[in-house]
Amino acid sequence: MAAEKPKSLKLQLIHGTNKHDISLVLAPDQAGDTFCVKHLMTEVEKRTQIPPEAQKLIFKGQSLKNGEVELDKIGIKNGVKVMLIGKKPTPVDDKETSALGQVEGLFDKESKKLSEITYELDGIHRGFIDKDKQQDAVKKLQKRMAVVAEHLIKLLEKLDSLMFEESNKGARGKRKTLVDKIQVLLNQIDGLNRGLDEKEDASTYTAGS
Q1: 115/164 same-domain check
Q2: What is the mean pLDDT of residues 77-102?
Q3: pLDDT band at 29 (very low <50, low <70, confident <90, very high)
Q4: Does residue 203 share a domain with residue 105?
Q5: CB 36 within 8 A of CB 52
Q6: In which band, very low, low, confident or very high, does the pLDDT at 30 lie, cut at 50, 70 and 90?
Q7: Is residue 60 part of a domain?
């Protein structure tokens, strides 16, 4: 018969000169689950206000990075001591993190606008608009794309101005991801504009032949 998994775990967290008694308790809906590093990280954040991405937990010289690792498999049991290296975000980081969230929200709006433009362009290519109206419709969509591109470039400039501490890996990683996503949309806009220009050139050539 398999041994019953513990529903609670108590250990001591050493953070500089401070010592914290940490108690992990599984919620009723997690009965039967195993304590993992992520559970410890969550409780550490509650006690120290240091987010998981800024935590460096060390047990017997081993750095605990993978949140899915089970604590009992690395020897963490009742009464052990775990060391924490890290500090909570500074007020500046909090402000920058808030700005990062705003940029993310604005990016989502611009991404939606570009999706709508792409959908309308596809409709034009499929002949859903009369030929005599297609040219004006395309020009309007190109203007809208230019506005989206301008907004995206401003978001890149805003991201470039945000400064995060080296330890704030979560925010730094999110910023890089947003930069990459914005670049993808800008490349998409360039591709759409090139395709429209080539089509216009071909139409002009055909009309002049």
Answers
A1: yes
A2: 85
A3: low
A4: yes
A5: no
A6: low
A7: yes
